[in-house]
Amino acid sequence: SGEAAAHLHANPQASRWRPQLPPRKMEKICSWESPSDLREVYNFNVRPDAWCTVRAERFKYTFNGWEFEKKSEGIRTVNFKKTAFMAGGMRRCHAMIDQSTKFSSRSMVRKVWRHWRAADERTESSAAVFARSTGLSQKFSKRFSELMGCQMKFLDVAVYEVQRDESSAEMEELFFTGEELIDGIFTKFNSNAGFVNQAEYGRQSEVAQAFTHWTFRYSQGNVMVSDVQGVCSSDGRLQFVFSDPQVHSREDSRDELGGDFGSGDLGCDGMYEFFRTHTCGPTCKKLDLSVRQCMKLMDPAETWGIPRIPSLLKSLRPGGAHHQKVRSIEKNGCLIRFCDEEKENDRRTFCPQFPVRFFGSNFTGGASRAREELERLVRSLLPRIAHIVVITEEARRGRPESWWQSMSLYLKAETGADPVLQLGAPTPEGVEPVTGVWFFVPEREGEQESGTTGAPSSSSSWGGGKAH
User: Fold this and answer.
1) Distance, CA of 461 to CA of 440 (rounded, Å)
2) Is-contact 60 158, C-beta < 8 A?
3) Rounded-to-integer distance, Cα 137 and Cα 120, Å
């Protein structure tokens, strides 16, 4: 599956991996057809007893840019094999023939859940998520083809509802999807969990990755089309026929889209996993795509705060003395973004923490690891540039808001130091008690260090500044 591929890509030494999922119902079909030629699978006359014949109504889902439209295409006779000839991470593939005039001469694929974790995975909605994923992908691929001058399409996927009669009395899977069989070498270009195919079809694979990246930017960060797979031209032309995509969607956009896109919709975690392994190529550059710019459209996976002091922020930002250490932390698969400075002059007086956002997936723990590493880095830097005065337990009982603003402005004007409140863990009433005050002292050349009334003396490890 895509999750397994992503895990093995990140952990080459892992010999065995099992996704943490609830217990699943055991496979009902234990035998698989392994033909040397698929024409044998679709030959109805070879073994008529291996086929089922049912009456089913066909539904088509289309996306108009705002919502999905469902349309019935009538009831028809459908033949499908009892035994599957292939299986993916979630569904089985059975040979199928739709006897309606439009599809009677075409080989089709019936797809049903390979195993189910809940009864609702045999309902219409559980089958419709795949048709909805395809309908949205078709809308995006049409626009992408116009921009790139290529030919990219996703095969139509329809939902079939089996009509109850004698032939289907014992069937449990009354809803399934049907699509045309792709003729050619089937290739998986990326997955829904960060896998990227870098070994096959170099130019075509690069365009497929750019398409996934572009869908995120084009939708303003609301959805992303992943699990791009199918057949492409092998002569250098950019011609693609894709099948069975997986859409990731933001939680706050699902109401407008009619819900999520099934168990394969990993939401923001799936989007993070794509960006963790994605490297922009010529197509991304042509479309003016950037991972860092796209991350700004996402919600952070983790947030944290560092003391709000200019010298510390300057050392961590681009061009600072410790920026390379921040970049090395980002290599774990996470983007660290220091928020822009607020324009209010006295904002830091009442907000001692400067917000830092971590854009990455906790699907593999990247965001939480990055936060822990940055926290260790900041804690190692603080003693070099700051001086803390501990507030006693008795003094903590009062509320500092009434006097702190005037006091901090006075200290800044008289000494040049930046005082910042250090807050403790919130009380049950939601109050964050003041546990100390940080004094950040600017460096002053040629100035001797002196003691501080009511506090430990200053040290050169705090930046060589004078503490008053």
Assistant:
1) 12
2) yes
3) 24
